[in-house]
Amino acid sequence: MQNSWSHHLRQLLGALTGCLILGFMLGYPLQLLCLGLLGYLGWTMVQSRKMYDWLLNPDASKTPPHSVGLWGDLFDNLHKLHLKNRKTEEKLLTQINRVRESTNAMRDGVVMTDSQGTIEWWNGAAQQLLGFRPETDLGQYIQNLIRSPDFKRYFDSRNYEEPLELNSPARPHIRLNFQISLFGDNDRMIVAKDVTRLHQLEQMRRDFVSNVSHEMRTPLTVISGYLETLEDNADDLPPKWRRAVNTMSIQASRMEALITDLILLSRIEIGEQAYDDHLNDIRPILEKIVHDARALSGSQEHDISLEVKDHRKLRGDEGQLRSAFSNLVFNAVKYTPAKGKITITWSADSEGGHLSVKDNGIGIDPIHIPRLTERFYRADPSRHLDTGGTGLGLAIVKHVLLNHDGKLDIRSRIGEGSEFICHFPADRLVGRAPETVNIADLATGETSKAPRTPEASGKRPDRAEPRG
Ligand code: ADP
Hints:
Distance between the termini: 94 Å
Helix content: 40-55%
CATH superfamily of the largest domain: Histidine kinase-like ATPase, C-terminal domain
Number of domains: 4
Bound molecules: adenosine-5'-diphosphate
Radius of gyration: 39 Å
Number of helices: 13
Number of strands: 13
Structural class: alpha+beta
Order of helices and strands: HHHEEHHHHEEEHHEHEEHEEHHEEE
């Protein structure tokens, strides 16, 4: 290019020198030089006009205007560049079309929105699953089409680690699992998966467990009643029957506890338990639990302390919160040897409210922690016989926290103790900013059996068998 440019320059200078020499020969050097320059200017004007017309309609298939010299080279190079761009554009378009075709062939609905949530594109499955119509819905704000407070909260949260399950706005019998990904300049790709079948199976499982538990409750109440009568009249029983009746009674209590927990869990899970969203003063709830925990500890004399560092109220269902907190505290008692230390702390910061239940008990091997909230999962199956646990306590805690937009954090080391922390979002705290107030140990005492807590407490301290 450099060579060709200097070649053209040399050509121009040669022509102008020719004009000058001719001018000297004819006696009009300046006039002929001006004439040459004017001629060059005129030619340049004609060529630039050609280029202007050509660029206005740069049809790649059309050959560039014919020209010579510098302008000829310019036209040729521009034409080559134009053809190259065309090819790249076509290649890109083919790739975009392939991606569109493949996403169209997907069974999952895919919707693209810009950073504001305006719908830019969707695939065929999205049309089916979400009922979008190309004539009216393109360019609409997504929250106008998926009108659900849960979806709005999820969409605006920008935290898309967990998917969201909702019924389809257009076909309510279809259950959809939404997963959003951020890309580009805060644009969003929303993938909606049809999970109706899974949802129905899950529903059937819950209904089955709930029905079986309810059905078993009546016969078990009858058996427990008779066993209680037999125990009350133990003196009339032959000695070899006394032990049998006592063991049967303990096992019946365990079954009762299990059924109570199963029913409670399925109620919390399917939302059958009326979710009573009111403002709860955490202190009295924790004080009562500490009182029951001391009763459960009994002769083991755990050192149980409570510290309430924030006096704002927590929005939620009192029964469910009581149930979750008591499960954690009673677990701390069960899994901490006699005279061990248990610290319960309620605190709040800009992130929200936090309930920590910390013990210096037997601890848990970290490999078990991710699975602890599964139903019937036990870190050490051989241990539970000593504690009388149902294996459902942490599953109840998890579901209560899910209902309260909360999260459970478990930190533990074998032999060093455990800390279970329930995190609640800041928008569930109502009241003035925190002001630190410590409530030192509540009066210790209760050495007898714990009173029966309401069913909502999920675990009843008096059901726990004496530790071996
Ligand atoms: P369980 O009725 O068996 O206590 P949970 O669901 O309440 O069932 O707890 C599940 C398992 O987690 C327990 O079996 C126990 O192995 C472990 N675990 C719970 N809390 C503690 C704790 N504070 N210290 C040690 N292990 C615990």
